[in-house]
Design a protein that fits this description.
By secondary structure, the protein is an alpha/beta fold. It has one domain: Rossmann fold. About 35% of the residues lie in helices and about 20% in strands. It is built from 9 helices and 10 strands. Strands 5-4-1-6-7-9-8-10 form an 8-stranded mixed sheet, with helices on both faces. A two-stranded antiparallel ribbon has the order 2-3. Helix 7 packs parallel to helix 8. The N and C termini lie far apart (about 35 Å). The model has no long low-confidence stretch (mean pLDDT about 90).
Length: about 270
């Protein structure tokens, strides 16, 4: 499976991941103290949905394209997410780093890391107008330890790797364990595709073994994944460590609106004390 994000930007998994990202950031903004966001696999930051890659899969059409009727829902995270999508411009979709940058206050920071030269160049251009956002040309796994704990002592670490390596679950679990030792009070969002439920469940165990006690898992699965002879992503998960109080309820509320539009199932599971 090709996980280069240009092929998948704006798909069903992005919708849920970015909705959760917005919700977490809105929670962080509730307190006056500044926060730092670290995005370890930032990608381009902004994706052209008219590109050859996007048209080849058509995943955005079945993702964000299905939510056009959902506006002014009264759900803060969902409405803010739609604002971020509109802010990216017609025919474009914002990546996690651009969404985060758009929600920073003057005292907050974003560190967006990307190691692929072409993707990094695009990322740097995307974030250039945000004075509180910094694009870093590096391997996210390798750079993360040196960034923790952030000076602000509060914030979010998003680890959203491409899963091109068959051992990515191991890499992700190891990176989290090292980060958690340095910044145990931080919020972590760990994204993963679900091709094997057993592998995903084993990953949950590794995260718990690292000492994380407060966990929220959000799974999204298409009811009718497209069958065209090619392997397609049909389910994905998001594990949130140290979820803000009330996040689970907010995601459940948003899911009631989003899941039918996506023709998907969204499960919000508390795996530890919130």
């Amino acid at each position: 499976m090709n996980y280069r994000h240009g092929f998948h930007a704006g798909n069903f998994a992005d919708v849920v991941k970015h909705l959760a990202l917005v919700s977490v950031l809105l929670h962080l903004r509730k307190k006056e103290k500044p926060f730092c966001v670290i995005d370890t696999h930032a990608g381009r930051g902004l994706y052209d949905l008219t590109s050859r890659e996007a048209k080849r899969t058509g995943e955005a059409v079945a993702g964000i394209g299905r939510l056009s009727e959902l506006r002014n829902t009264g759900v803060a995270a969902l409405d803010t997410y739609f604002e971020a999508v509109r802010g990216a411009g017609e025919g474009h979709y914002p990546g996690s780093s651009l969404i985060a940058a758009s929600l920073l206050r003057d005292k907050d920071r974003l560190i967006a890391i990307e190691k692929h030269p072409e993707e990094f160049a695009a990322l740097a251009g995307t974030l250039a107008r945000f004075i509180r956002a910094k694009a870093v040309d590096a391997d996210g796994y390798e750079r993360l330890p040196a960034l923790l704990p952030p000076a602000e002592r509060r914030g979010l670490v998003l680890i959203d790797p491409p899963f091109e390596d068959e051992k990515e679950f191991e890499h992700l679990a190891r990176a989290f364990a090292g980060a958690y030792r340095r910044f145990a009070t931080g919020i972590y969002m760990l994204w993963f595709p679900i091709k094997s439920p057993a592998a995903a469940d084993a990953f949950m165990g590794e995260i718990a073994n690292a000492g994380a006690a407060k966990l929220l898992r959000i799974d999204v699965a298409l009811n009718a994944p497209r069958v065209d002879g090619k392997e397609r992503l049909a389910a994905a998960g998001l594990l949130i460590v140290n979820p803000p109080f009330g996040l689970a309820e907010e995601m459940e509320e948003a899911a009631r609106l989003v899941a039918p539009a996506l023709d998907a199932r969204i499960a919000v599971k508390r795996l530890g004390a919130e």
